[in-house]
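Renewal narrative, Specific Aim 1. Our central claim is that a sequence can be written position by position from structural information alone. The example that follows is taken directly from our test logs and has not been curated for this report. It begins with the structure tokens describing the chain, in the order in which they were read.
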């Protein structure tokens, strides 16, 4: 339902100007395919959110400079996207904590309330935080360390990711446990 549209949109916005971000996006989408059996009817929604989670980095969309908010506004305003999809993109990987660091928490929380679907939210965190910038698999611990080293300890992103790390690790562990419990 959403998958093809999401992939075409993300490719249009990211593949040219942000080749590495596009590679990451493709890897995150692959992780979504890997965990689809956990989500049943929401598997396609997860795939779309995984594919579009970083669309707000596209240069023409970067209004606030906070990609979850910019991406969600783009999806809502220019595409009339499904509300659950928009809320997942807006809040992916504990974005409220970064929004707080940027003074945008109230904007994000009021426009795009957190989705009350813990498994779906955790699955998107898992997909994003177990994928390197180049789209390869990694551990959540290595991904957090990579983000801190790329942005610096004292940057907005560095402060945010250190605050979010315990929640990220817990979300990834919950998804890994759910995957391990699946019949083979």
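The sequence written for that structure reads:
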């Amino acid at each position: 339902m959403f998958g093809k549209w999401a992939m075409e949109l993300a490719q249009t916005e990211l593949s040219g100007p942000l080749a590495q971000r596009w590679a990451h996006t493709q890897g995150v989408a692959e992780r979504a395919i890997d965990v689809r059996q956990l989500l049943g009817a929401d598997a396609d929604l997860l795939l779309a959110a995984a594919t579009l989670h970083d669309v707000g980095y596209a240069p023409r969309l970067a209004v606030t400079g906070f990609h979850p908010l910019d991406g969600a506004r783009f999806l809502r305003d220019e595409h009339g996207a499904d509300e659950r999809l928009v809320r997942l993109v807006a809040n992916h990987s504990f974005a409220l904590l970064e929004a707080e660091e940027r003074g945008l928490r109230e904007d994000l929380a009021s426009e795009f309330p957190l989705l009350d679907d813990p498994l779906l939210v955790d699955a998107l965190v898992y997909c994003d935080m177990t994928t390197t910038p180049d789209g390869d698999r990694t551990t959540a611990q290595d991904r957090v360390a990579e983000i801190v080293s790329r942005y610096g300890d004292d940057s907005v992103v560095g402060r945010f990711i250190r605050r979010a790390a315990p929640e990220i690790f817990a979300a990834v562990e919950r998804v890994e446990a759910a995957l391990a419990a699946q019949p083979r």
